[in-house]
Specification:
Order of helices and strands: HEEEHHHEHEHHEHEHEEEHEEHEEEH
Distance between the termini: 42 Å
Helix content: 25-40%
Structural class: alpha/beta
Strand content: 15-25%
CATH superfamily of the domain at 60-288: Type I PLP-dependent aspartate aminotransferase-like (Major domain)
Amino acid sequence: MNFEKNYRELDSSYYMPAFSRDMMLVRGSGSTVIDAEGNKYLDFVAGIAVCSTGHCHPTVVKAIQEQAAELIHCSNLYYVPHQGMLAKRLVEKTGLKKAFFSNSGAEANEAAIKLARVRTGKTDFVACEDGFHGRTMASLSCTHKPAIREPFLPLNPRCSFVPYGDAEAIRKAITKETAGVFVEPVQGEAGIIIPPKGYLREVREICDETDTLLILDEVQTGMGRTGKWFAYQHEEILPDIVSIAKGIASGFPMGAIVARDDLEFSKSEHGSTFAGGPLACAAANATLDVIDEVLPSVSKKGELIKKVLSEHNPRVIGLMVGITIGDACPQVLQSCKEQGLLVNCAAHGNLRLIPPLVISEEEIKSGCGVIDAAIRAVR
């Protein structure tokens, strides 16, 4: 496959400089990728938790190819191939009632905001410090990071931010105008921050007591990432709305919300031309098939990472791993890259490891050996 040798120049000349990047990935298989210069890497980023089934899983590729040969797009003016079956499967996996599809996690959270407002008649939200829910205007309102939120003030809806892991702070922030509480079961962009045990259950109880919707953002934690289909299942609770994206379709752009029994959009209250199209739903259904097979091994793989990297005090839940390194995190990232491993620095100097769910134990040991050496070199 041929790629422009001057891709850096083209990007610099014609693409808005919204990203910091220094390489082009051109091929992938399983847990490995190859860049435009022919270098091979073990991938502990997985497209930021998107490539749940690895790169180009044959089951997913086949589903996309077969659907592309039949119908690529038909819009939601008509019944869409695979859409109803995917909605049914997500309802069964979540324990909720009705699904609605989107093209991304940010769009899924936009839909959750709209649904919460239209069904409750309330306008405001509560979210957590260091939480990330997207960069579109409404989802950005509930995203805490000042550097990406404040340039776009004033934002709507109104959102109050409270410390993560503090359920009583949520109680105090809820007012009569609060439509919903946005919470990540594990904060991903913040660097894999795991709340105290029982936190989600307590927040669920507070929302019940105050007649406030609990909206769980499982864009990063969902689809088997934490060892269960959804992270809230570790606490044995149900949200009122859950948002899903990233790992849902193995890299094909897609998102969704699933809501409880009396929460749904009426005709014309929401819509999307592309959302839940034939290709996306085919890819997602195939992805669910693969995750069904590998899910029992996810927690075991996470425990292996925890054991191998134990001297660095990793925070681990399934295949979400965070290690606090500090200012040297970029140096560790670069060292890993030079040794053929891709990792990611999240907020506050936290190294974030989110490899494909299909990663092998041998690949885990190999990658963790590189990480261990890179961290030791800066400490």
